[in-house]
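Two records follow; treat each independently.
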Amino acid sequence: MAEALYSKIKYFDNIPATPKKELILTRLGYRKGITELNAHDIALVEESMRQGQYLCKPEGAYLIVPISTINGSVITLDNGVSIDSLGLTKLLQNSKSVVLMAATVGKKVIDKIFEEVEKGNAANGLIIDSVASQTADAALDWMVQLLRKILIREGKVLTKHRYSPGYGDLPLSYQKVIFDMLQLERLNISLTEKFMLIPEKSVLAIAGIEDKGEQDNNE
């Protein structure tokens, strides 16, 4: 069963993910109508954003796995993996399958962030850091949109929300479960003993797959 599931992992080596400028600025603390930027600040932001986007290499992967049972707070997948989370159970209450997703922007942009900070260019490093974070999220969003287009043809939909390890009552340790199932070494991602992802700007998520009628009934 495991080999059959793993053979269905979909990898993307070059995701066309473009972060939204307003989200990058918001992450930096910018507030429209309140924060004022002079010409020098604007030039710094624009140049740092260009650097960050150039260095980001968005990649990703996803895997769809049928749900075997949901019992209380425990979701058991067809491959025998169990996940214990009341919050995730609520999200998946009408789902027949889950989709496990991962996105990363690679190591080069992380190296640049540390390089800028070590050189004393903390502002530049902070802006590039924000670009990297938003690009990783944008890569995940790109996969979500792709999945929605694929699933709608089958009369299915993704849950409106997704869940990540470390959020709510889903322990960060479940990052290893997703990491192993997606075989993320393929994307040059690794995991520390404390379940942190390397490169740092990498994100994992779980969403459910429902029959379209189920979601319509819940609206």
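The next record belongs to a different protein.
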Amino acid sequence: MRRLVLAVATFALLAGCGYSDTEVPAAVTPEPAKVTPAPPCDDTGDPTRSYAPAGVTNGPTIAEIRERGFLRAGVSADSYLLGSRNPFTGQIEGFDIDMVNAIAAAIFGTAQGHVQLRVISAADRIPLLQSSELDIVARNMTINCSRWKDIAFSAEYFRSGQKVLVAQDSGIRSVADLSGKRVCAPSGTTSLDNIQQIAPDAIPVTAGNHTGCLLKFQNGEADAITGDDTVLAGLAAQDPYAEVLTGEALTDEPYGIGVNEDDVDLVQLINGVLEDMRADGSWQASYKKWLQPSLKAPATQPQPVYGR
């Protein structure tokens, strides 16, 4: 009995030190992720309607940001062209980051030294705004009326559209071909809901972000990735065997800067910044630098809709 106890204790000690053999479990097919439908909208107006600029420069929210000394912005670090980390400089850069810097410059006179970027997932966007851990979110966030129930938005600053990325030799040529195929999108987005309206037999797969979806796609765990054309263009640039299906976008995705619903003065300032970027051409310059080379199409800044 003593020998048996000693043997068991020795085995436990070795296991704790990492020397035990690891039994490889049998392969298990994961269950498809469950998609929760978005709540119905009761806003019959245009969801891109925002608060008109009112020349606000020192409202309560703006004063608090100035006193703190920096603007807290939630962004992506893996959405190539929109917000991604430059491997050579270590800096996060892209079209969305240009929006953040313009807002910070309007508050402090310069963005240099006055921006704190926080890398967040798509699912983090609304909760972190609601808890006031962030001042703004500039992370390719679509404006819709159900989200207006939780947060506020700036005027639309870019019009994207949902498309699908597939392997070049997949034989998938349209959304209709996705029936029975595994389609990946980040959790917390509406992309899978939109796909299943057109291809209800598509199998939803989720990941923390689009980079996670790309890994699943390259590992054979997903047959396609869906998301905004801006994001998919960045993924295709990282995978020479992938392509974005051509044709019209499945949806219109109006991007807005997310803000806590109580911070109306900050929304008004942001909308003034967007108006200034239209007037001085800086919006157009940012688009031409970041997005036009991959999207291969010109674009103009969306016209704002006010009256909220």
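Discussion point: The longest helix spans residues 264-280. How would you locate this feature using only the token line?
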